[in-house]
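C-alpha cells incoming
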C-alpha cells in the first residue's frame, strides 16, 4: 500500500520556519516503519515536493530528507492531475497534504470538482505553521478534518487506516450518569451531635 505525502514548498513556507517544520514532519513519516514494523509493514511512503509542479523527494544516502527549498505559489490542481495517473493502479489512493493552506479560493473549488472524479480517495491535511488557514485545509480534506502538525501520527494513521464515513459522537459520560442516578438515602443519625 502506498501513502502519497505532498509537502507544500511554495514561498509562504519560508515564513516562520515552516519549511524546517515540513522537513521534520517528513523525517517522522520516513521513520514510521522503524517505530512500529508490524503496524506499518508493507507501507510504501512516497514524498513529493509541491508548489507549481510536483517532484519526488528522494531520501539522501544516509536516509535523511533532502533540504527543502520554498518559492513561488502553490497550485492544488497539480495534485489532482498527478493523482489521476495512479487512480486505476492502486485501488484506494491515500494522500496526506502538509501545507499552510495559503492558496486562492478558486483553486479549492477546482480541486474539489476534480476530486469528484476519484472513486476511492482519502485525503488528510496537516496544518503547518501558526498562520495556517485551517478552513481552507479542511475544505480539501475528504473528511473535512485538518490535523495540527504535532498530531502527524494521528493524521498518518487516519489516512492509512481510516475512512471517510461520517462518525457519530459517543454519548457523553454525563448522560450515562443522569440515566442511572440513584437516590442517596440519608441516615437518620444526627450529624450535629
Amino acid at each position: 500500500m502506498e501513502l502519497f505525502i505532498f509537502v507544500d514548498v511554495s514561498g509562504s513556507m519560508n515564513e516562520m520556519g515552516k519549511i524546517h517544520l515540513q522537513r521534520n514532519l517528513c523525517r517522522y513519516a520516513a521513520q514510521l516503519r522503524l517505530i512500529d514494523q508490524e503496524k506499518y509493514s508493507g507501507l510504501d511512503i512516497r514524498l513529493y515536493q509541491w508548489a507549481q509542479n510536483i517532484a519526488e523527494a528522494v531520501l539522501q544516502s544516509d536516509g535523511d530528507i533532502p533540504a527543502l527549498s520554498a518559492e513561488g505559489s502553490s497550485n492544488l490542481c497539480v495534485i489532482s492531475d498527478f493523482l489521476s495517473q495512479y487512480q486505476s493502479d492502486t485501488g484506494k489512493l491515500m494522500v496526506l497534504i502538509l501545507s499552510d493552506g495559503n492558496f486562492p479560493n478558486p483553486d479549492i473549488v477546482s480541486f474539489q470538482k476534480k476530486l469528484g472524479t476519484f472513486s476511492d480517495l482519502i485525503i488528510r491535511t496537516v496544518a503547518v505553521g501558526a498562520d495556517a488557514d485551517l478552513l481552507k485545509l479542511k475544505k480539501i480534506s475528504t473528511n473535512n478534518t485538518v490535523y495540527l502538525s504535532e498530531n502527524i501520527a494521528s493524521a498518518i494513521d487516519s489516512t492509512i487506516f481510516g475512512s471517510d464515513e461520517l462518525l457519530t459522537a459517543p454519548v457523553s459520560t454525563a448522560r450515562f450518569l443522569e440515566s442511572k442516578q440513584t437516590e442517596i438515602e440519608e441516615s437518620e443519625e444526627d450529624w450535629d451531635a
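note: The CA atoms of residues 100 and 128 lie 5 Å apart.
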